Amino acid sequence: MAPGFRPAIATTRIRYRFDPAEGRMYRQAGSAPERALHGKFESVVFFYVPQGGRTRLDVQITCSSYDPRRGRPNVLTLGASFGASMQVLRSRYGMWRASPMNVVNNINGIGNCARTDVYNLKYPDLLDVQTAVARKIVEELREFDNLYYEVCNEPYFGGVTMEWQHRIIDAIVTAEKDFPDKHLISLNIANGRKKVEKPHPAVSIFNFHYCVPPDTVAMNYGLNKVIGENETGFRGRADVLYRTEGWDFMLAGGGLFNNLDYSFTPKHPDGTFLDYRSPGGGSPTLRRQLRILNL
């Protein structure tokens, strides 16, 4: 377990995007142009940085030279300064059109497949690049104790296989084998509830979305691992909905609650925007109310 990680923790999840032109992180509001290009933009970090303005990349060079520290001071270092734990994840949504792993964007002939075949074991050359990126990320972020790795967001949509996720977990474990402190690894299991069968022994956190009621905790309590809820919404905007959802989940025996908060936008980086029309909640009042779950 990474130093400083508290198994029982409630946090607010903020979406970020990485601007490769500027090498900077931005809170993600989901502007119309971004939605048009990327679909549902869920990536915490844009892992691939175009070099020299090229539109087609050498994927091998990109993977070996990728430096996540370019964006890091805006997220991990800042988060560490006020005790925040971060989740680093791979996104399955909409990024394929812009990804260097798509054959149309690289000079290596890698990624000649449908978007729904990206995250399985059908293409060894693509898998080699994916595991190389995973190892590089783990190596570069080794010094931080305020993060854990989630392999893929909502893998149960879009053809992501458990075998592929286990291969990425193996890559993380191998990359950290000589580290004095290891990071926790998470899998996102289901929306609502599902019993975990044959878990990978290196997984410490099993995350679920939209756990109302929180019966997935009891279903998986025998794993003796952290059962988390790390996405909320689609119930309305009222604070009481997500305040009680957090309390219900934690009192059921959950170890992590993490809500989407739509009050953060580029123009309101302090999380004070309340006139949103997104399918969820979030407000300064809700954050104050949930903070007690961290005590």
> Can you tell me the residue ranges where pLDDT is under 50 for at least 5 consecutive residues?
1-55
- The portion of residues assigned to helices is 25-40%
Radius of gyration: 19 Å
- Output the structural class: alpha/beta
| Portion in beta strands | 5-15%
Query: Please, how many helices?
Result: 8
In N-to-C order, the SSE pattern is EEEHHHEHEHEEHEHEH
**What composes the largest sheet?**
7 strands, parallel
Please report the total strand number as a whole number.
9
Overall pLDDT level: 78
Q: How far is it from the N-terminal to the C-terminal residue, by CA?
A: 20 Å
Query: Number of folding domains?
Result: 2
Strand order of the largest sheet: 1-9-8-7-6-5-4
What best-fitting shape do the alpha-carbon axes yield?
A: globular
Question: What would you say this structure looks like, in words?
Answer:
The chain is an alpha/beta fold and 295 residues long. It folds into two domains: 1-183, no CATH class; 187-295, no CATH class. It has helices spanning 32-38, 59-65, 76-81, 124-140, 162-175, 215-220, 239-251, 284-291; strands at residues 9-13, 16-19, 24-27, 86-89, 147-150, 185-191, 205-209, 226-229, 256-260. The strands form two sheets. The chain has a seven-stranded parallel beta sheet with strand order 1-9-8-7-6-5-4. Strands 2-3 form a two-stranded antiparallel ribbon. Strand 5 (147-150), helix 5 (162-175) and strand 6 (185-191) form a beta-alpha-beta unit. The longest helix is centred in the middle third of the chain and has 17 residues, at 124-140.
